[in-house]
Amino acid sequence: MPHSQITKRGFDLLRDPRDSKGTAFSREERERYGLSGLLPDIVSSLSMQIQRIEGHVDSLTTDLDKYIYLSDLQERNEVLFYALLQKDPVKYMPIVYTPTVGLACQTFGRIYRRPKGMFISARHRGRMADVLGNWPERDVRWICVTDGERILGLGDLGAQGMGIPIGKLALYTACAGVPPEVTLPILLDVGTNNEALLEDPFYIGIRQKRLAGQEYDDFIEEFVTAIEEVFPQCAIQWEDFATPNASPILERYRHRISSFNDDIQGTAAVGVAGVIAATRMKGERLRDQTYVFYGAGSAGLGISELLWRLMVDEGCSEEEARAKCWLVDSKGLVVASRQDLAESKLPFTHQHAEIAGLADIVQSVRPTVLIGTSTIPKSFTQEVIEHMASYCERPIIFPFSNPTSKSECSAEEAYTWTNGKAIFASGSPFQPVVINGTTIYPGQGNNVYIFPGVGLAAYAVSATNIPYKTFGVAARALAGMVSEEQFSKWLIYPPMSDIQKAAKVVAIACAEYLFDDGHAGIERPANITELIESHMWKPTYA
């Protein structure tokens, strides 16, 4: 979907990130749009501009400095920004999103410059629709929204969590080609319980404790109602809400407005895709494994929920599938005798003695798959991993907590403590590891393999609903991309350099499912691949 015809002139045009070409404006365009004398004489090609940007980024010494510079680029020239990301996603995605975005959120009050989205605050209650009407684009199709309470593994960052929806939607465009003008990052500023932020003179949010209870629920209800009124074709990605709010919000609204929670469903899909690929590498099935989830919040519950559904598809009964999934929360193993369990954990309780420590749990349960979503760094200890390797020829070890500082173990630790036998994937990237003379490339179970493709599919078919099954379809499509040659390099995800190809494969599979299951808002075309491709924006100058 191309942006509107250029109507601005002079400095107004140069300051518009959607239409500005910077030094790439031709001499004829400079005369037509009143730019003569406002630009240096050189007329650059897009590739020349990219080389200039790359050179400057490489000269910066810290990832946060690079993040700030690329954020500034996004604010002044969207085509150039996205062309850079698409040229080398392996290099630039860790800068614009995980792991650097975590540090950016922590310092957001100091680095904030220009608006890239909207802050809907507690002061806007009663008039949210009017406030949303201030956004300059009318045809918004995707909103990514957070209330900043559980940013990555960093906790309550309040309004400074805005870096997350900005980064997520940038990846919708960079990876899947969702047009940037149809996306809108939103931060719901309902306060913060982070005392350090409330006392920080540079904090950019409302200075009050978080809304809670009925007040909070009413705030979310007004927000969704306002979205339905102002952007009636819009879908919502819920992002980084605290566990007590994440699932209830998703369940309350997912049948009313097309929506999903990336921490629950996106993490589930990428985690399950990794397990599917890893079991293929082992010549086994999902139902042949025993799973321990270290962390029973939104992410851990989401992965376990999707896994048992897919094991049922393999022929397990619901009871058999759930029996293979063991949850560990802050109190220890989730067992039936405990009286302190949230309702969401009850389907995965077991008749078993209570055990607190992970090492003892692994010795008792003997998992073949260990998945971490705890945000407790180094909790997958040498004792835990060596014990798994003692009874399992190829243990599957996924420390998925973000950012890197919160990872349950490093790639080097997992490979060293299993003598290279582990099948490993993490949430944030790790460098290749050499074990016994062999270079092993750690997998990265990054949600970016899932949510841009799902988002593109929903956008292309005007989805009326995004059911849970969509994410099982996405997981299988992603896992199916991993070749035997990639297995030989110990890869269980496609290389990040293929992220645009992965997003397209996921989008096509999800679009087919949404049509098949009656969740598309348009007539089914003869060629779904062509439909997906026709909705993919490309960063080129008109």
Q: Could you characterize the architecture of this molecule?
A:
This protein has about 550 residues and is α/β, with parallel strands linked by helices. The strands form 3 sheets. It has a 7-stranded mixed β-sheet, sandwiched between helices. Strands 1-3-2-4-5 form a 5-stranded parallel β-sheet. Strand 7 and strand 8 form a beta hairpin. The model has no long low-confidence stretch (mean pLDDT about 95). It starts with 9 loop residues before the first helix and ends in an 8-residue tail after the last helix. The chain folds into 4 domains: about 80 residues, Hemocyanin, N-terminal domain; about 160 residues, Rossmann fold (3-Layer(aba) Sandwich), CATH 3.40.50; about 180 residues, 3-Layer(aba) Sandwich (Rossmann fold), CATH 3.40.50.720; about 70 residues, no CATH class. The chain is globular.
Tell me the number of helical segments per DSSP (H or I, 4 or more residues long): 24
Largest sheet: 7 strands, mixed
**Which residue ranges are poorly predicted, with pLDDT under 50 across at least 5 consecutive positions?**
none
Radius of gyration: 23 Å
Looking across the biggest beta sheet, what order are the strands in? Answer: 8-7-6-9-10-11-14
CATH level-1 class of the largest domain: Alpha Beta
Helix content: 40-55%
Shape: globular
